Amino acid sequence: MAYRITDECVACGTCLDACPNEAISEGDIYVIDQDKCAECGACVDACPTGAIIEE
After folding, report:
1. Tally of domains in the chain
2. Is 5:34 a contact under the CB 8 Å cutoff?
3. Cα–Cα distance, 41 to 15 (Å, whole number)
């Protein structure tokens, strides 16, 4: 299972702060580095817009 940030992202930074592995980087929408992601789900729980989904 991998996580992806969708176009619903408003770049609030909540997921960035929640990620224990610093796997999320900033941009117009944020991006998850799959090599660093431990699939813990902290970003999913933190996202206020539901923009992070499992693939």
Report:
1. 1
2. no
3. 10
